[in-house]
Amino acid sequence: MHALDGVKVLDLGTFLAGPFCATVLGEFGAEVVKVERPGGGDNLRRFGTDTECGDTLVWLSEARNKRSVTIDFADPRGLELVKELIAWADVVIENFRPGVLEKWGLGPDTIEEINPRAVLLRVSAYGQSGPLRNLPGFARIAHAFSGLAYLAGEPDRVPVTPGSTSLADYMTGMYGVIGVLMALRARETTGRGQVVDIALFETIFRALDELAPAYQKFGYVRERMGADTVNVVPHSHYRTADDHYVAIACSHDDMFTRLSRAMERPELSAPERFGPKQNRLAARDEVNGIVSDWVRSLPCDEVLARCRAAGVPAGKLYSIEDIFADEQYQHRGTITTQDSRIGPLAVPGVVPTLSETPGEIRWLGPELGEHTDDVLTRILGRSAEIIAKLRADGVV
Predict the structure, then answer these.
(1) What's residue 163's pLDDT?
(2) Of 316, 343, 370, at which residue does a domain stop?
(3) d(Cα 279, Cα 296) in Å, to the nearest integer?
């Protein structure tokens, strides 16, 4: 049994943000039918590292558990098939520019007429309303517009990409899951679906802690701080004697007291020194320098051992090579190896872990149109002869 057994999802989206929501729903049991254009399919198939099967590693990992169906929206017969799939679905997902769905004759009003119980998730760069609604945008633009990219990097240097260029896509997909599940829960009471409207930039902005209230209250414009954190210190990355980096997080005074003991310098946490947070913030460079010198005097394993013995949160900055070797990752199944069209492939596992109705990966990204016959026969009731005719005409 899976948590979302019986939930039917129609994925009309492209690339990553909307489709990632469908991926997560599919991991927990929802049946996901992904509609792609004949011939080319979703551009995500060509985003990332190419493989011998013709699709990229990104596609193989992120299109897991989906049934690929090819349908030409421009053909009235294809549009009719899509409308029938909308009637079948509990959830419809799209992430085109606002107005594109309406241009195809599949706007929210039409979807409601076809299936008043359907939940429609609409993902776009700037949302379905506002002066910028019609502008295109990808995750990198969302990082810029949300304020995140401005904060990423070293002071007085070019802002950098905050880790992954696809961060906004993944976060928006996760917020999409939240929105869809809440809408399905509301449907149990109202009997009706609704529209879930998410902008890429909003999901990033929502995660920027006190950025907005600090500006409104004090006019404070946060600048790039490198690895440091604005409200606490030491809370950064430090280089070890064997040229690794460790993250140390002292989020409150008690934690700094523990770190002082780990460094065998308990006097640093005295009230007249750096014990109170305000004192540490006022002497940020000095405190960071003291911690940096201590870390630089020891190998990585020794720094981590002393911090952990003292109860100080600390961790090595992992490369993917470190991740593959780590026992915690292995124990949790955070990386799982699955059969694929290019042989065994390591991909991220399912998150979160549910004790009674866990999710699973049933297959990795499918071939283009791999499930067209199955879906048109099993769900839409078309005969083999009709499907053959549609295929000959380029409709599917």
Answers:
(1) 87
(2) 316
(3) 23
Q: Is residue 215 part of a domain?
A: no
In this structure, are 167 and 32 located in the same domain?
A: yes
One of 55, 72, 169, 253 is an active-site residue; which one? 169
Whether 76 and 125 map to the same domain: the answer is yes
Whether residue 194 lies inside any domain: the answer is: yes
Count other C-beta atoms under 10 Å from residue 395's C-beta.
Answer: 21
What does DSSP say about strands 314-316 and 245-249: parallel, antiparallel, or unpaired? Answer: antiparallel
Contact present, 158 and 151 (Cβ < 8 Å): no
| First and final C-alpha spacing in the chain | 33
Question: pTM for the full model?
Answer: 0.95
Report how many domains make up the chain. Answer: 2
pLDDT for 24-64, tens place per residue? 999 999 999 999 999 999 999 999 999 999 999 999 999 99
**Does one domain contain both 344 and 254?**
no
**Would residue 339 show up in a list of annotated catalytic residues for this protein?**
no
Residue 175 pLDDT > 90: yes
Contact in structure between 261 and 310 (CB atoms under 8 Å): yes
Question: From edge to edge, which strands make up the β-sheet containing 119-124?
Answer: 66-70, 31-36, 8-11, 91-94, 119-124, 195-199
Closest CA to 316 of 332, 300, 327, 335: 300
Residue 167 belongs to domain with CATH number: 3.40.50.10540
Q: What is the pLDDT of residue 164?
A: 83
Q: What average pLDDT score do residues 318-335 get?
A: 98
Structural domain includes residue 212: no
Choose among 71, 100, 99: nearest CA to 10.
71
Pick the closest to residue 123 from 87, 98, 86, 103 (CA basis).
98
- Adjacent-strand bridge partners of 124: 199
Q: Collapsing DSSP states into helix, strand and coil, what is residue 332?
A: helix
CATH for 262: 3.30.1540.10
Which among 287, 237, 240, 227 has a CA at the least distance from the CA of 260?
287
Yes or no: say if 68 and 93 are a contact pair by the CB < 8 Å rule: no
Query: Among 288, 316, 344, where does a domain finish?
Result: 316
Domain range for 45: 8-206+331-392
Q: In whole angstroms, give the CA distance from residue 384 to residue 373.
A: 8
3-state DSSP assignment of residue 239? strand
Q: Side-chain half-sphere of 178: how many Cα atoms within 13 Å?
A: 9
